[in-house]
User: What shape does this take?
Amino acid sequence: MVELERQDNYIDDINRELYDIRDEFSYSYKADKGLTPEIIREISGKKNEPKWMLDFRLKSLQIYNELDVPPWSPDISDLDIDNIVTYVKPKTDMKISWDDIPDEIKDTFVRLGIPQAEHESLAGVGAQYDSEVVYHSVRQYLLDQGVIYTDMESAVRDYGDIIKKHFMTCVPPRDHKFAALHGAVWSGGSFVYVPKGVKVDIPLQSYFRSNAPGAGQFEHTLIIVDEGAFLHFIEGCSAPKYSVNNLHAGCVELFVREGARLRYSTIENWSKNMYNLNTKRCIVEKNGSIEWISGSFGSRVSMLYPMSVLKGEGASSEFTGVTFAGNGQYLDTGAKVIHGAPYTTSTINAKSIAKDGGVAVYRGIVKIAPRAHHTKSTISCDSLMMDNNSRSDTIPVLDIRNDEVDIGHEAKIGRISDEAIFYLMTRGLSESDARAMIVRGFVEPIAKELPLEYAVEMNNLIRLELEGSIG
Amino acid sequence: MIKLNELNTLPVPTFRWLRVNELAIDDEIDFEARPYGKDFLQMAPQGELIQRQMPYNGLTDRPIMKDLMDSAGFGVSEDLVGFADTFHNSGMYIEIPRGIKVTEPIMVGYKPDSDNPTVIDNNLIIAHEHSEVTIVMDIASSANASAVHNGVTRVVAKEGAMVTVIKIQRMNDSSFHFDSNLALVGSGARVDYIVAELGSKKAAVNYTCRLSEGAQSHINTIYLGNGDRHLDLSFLMEHQGRRSTSSIEARGALRDMASKTFKGTIDFKKGADKSEGSESEHVLLFDRTVKSISVPLLLCSEDDVKGQHAISSGKVDQDKLFYLMSRGFSRGEAMVLLAEASFSDVIDKIYPKSLEDLIRAEISGRLLHGN
Assistant: This one.
């Protein structure tokens, strides 16, 4: 067969104009730059926190100072923590009614489609602007069933015991340097409790927006899905681009109780100067299940590896992720699964696309404890290289400590094959349509897991533009 | 003092808590450089080739050594490679002239005993353009000896040459084994390794192949763990030239408290377009107490390549085991049959056939009578 002339695929950068709209930066309180116990006392004081939380913050700061940046991490030397403003309070208190939110903040969320989505297809919405949650609402019939959906600050006040019992037990500050940083300066985020047996039939959503230049966003999300309950939670993140580097070191702690099911979807589309060092973890009890759907598009550097700890017999986890690294981006993402009990199952399906000098890394671990007999795990990693300026690495580890296991792992790396394009062209498609179809097919497993409006958003994010034609 | 805390480092590091970035050995190992007083060249084919013992001062005068010195950064550790370069007590220098095809294998065998417990071999194999050669290296140990082996083998395959290296390690459970291998595979050349890692208390082996344009390299390996032994296997394929091809295929079996770490890397460097690399590992797990760690890396800086890996691990099929036992085999015998069936593709490639029997004896000895 005549070899087709080599053609580089060209996919345009994600259109970020929508997200890059900056709002004039105004605030009611802003912490000094840098990180000292005084600043932490100040943040805690402004929030009227109980003493245990202040102590927790100070202890975390101490741990933060002790720990080093992991030697395997992407280069984050540009990130100067002393220059990141850890706490920015927008000029509004939390509102229940959308109309009460100041116009410039409201406009941003309207542009991002948040209230519209709420009316159409969501059970509840929380919106965080810089460090504080500015809007929270949840449908009445869910409140009647005992569902709690509120911002973290209110939760620390109103549900102190539950928070104290769970807060950073899943991701302890000692886990890594940025978890410690989070423990010290966290602000905002959501708390969700779904009582036993309650099935939340339409998704809850939180949207995080970082607007202040040089600011860190450290929201904390804590979700407890009690026995036999079900929840779908959607998280969206964005930030405009400033010349100062921003930091996002959020923390997501999920507790899935016996027989419960949680689906956690994320589309992260931070601006290209954001350092996204986020920690997400879920503890799954007996027969519970967690489903992660994760799309990583923006940011300059991402280090994100959602972890599932399968603690109870019969627990399961499913991870589906797409990472799209373009010019100037280093996206180090993946998944971790710890099989800690018998009869547990896990599936990892990771896809990445690297183009225009972007670096996409899959980094993962599946660990099977000695007592976790009869476990099953399937891991599949696919990487698509769009040109030879980019880089794509797959770094998985399988650690198996008993014999009653069934583990399958496969990974593939390469470009869109000329044969596939050629075949589609023989069926009457143009070359650009053929390429577009293949890339859409590549991300299809993620797109189909997302609610419609998010799938549409993702399709907008991956806008295909193909150059040239076959000679 | 040789440092043994950073062996077989992963080409790119990952999470520290997994402890796979490097191997640390805390055993007291006697690395004294004493002479090895036994013959080791066991079969030397006739014909037009150079095959002699590696001189004690190494080969610093050979121009080819310069290329080799420039290609550092391979092996179990820099210390161990340096130690073998400086203090080797055995090893072969083999040079095959242009166009010569050596049909009989060159066979080298070591069997350290209590009088000669240390083998530090330094080997250099140069295959000139379009030549062919097979080298077999077997290392065992006497039953009563606590032996130490630290070897370095460099292979230079010039344009169109074909080199096959067969390495068999079947040392006893009180011995230590370190083996560093480097292949510089010239354009259109091919270097194949067949590796059987069956014994020793702790073993750390490293194979690094650097592939030029149109070069090929294939590693077929079998490994066996029993008792409380540990195996650390590291294979690295560096695709430097375009249209190069590589494969790493591993078959293993673990029983008792044995542990193993398998690190296989396919690295497509910039300029290696139209290259293909594949990697697979299949492990049979016979007991609940085994530990099996796999780190299959794919590193890629070129888009027009095909890389893939597949790993599967699992308990031995109970139906198969039960069937064999219902036919009168003991559990141990059934294990031997299943391991041999899984290993047969690799064992069949081992030459000469006398070695095949030694390998089968080692496998059945370890699986039948393991503790």
In short: The first strand of chain A starts at residue 27 and ends at 30. Confidence is low (pLDDT under 50) at residues 1-5, 9-16, 464-471 of chain A. The longest helix of chain A spans residues 431-447. Chain A touches chain B at residues 6, 8, 70-72, 363, 365, 367, 370, 373, 383, 385-388, 390-415 (CB under 8 Å).
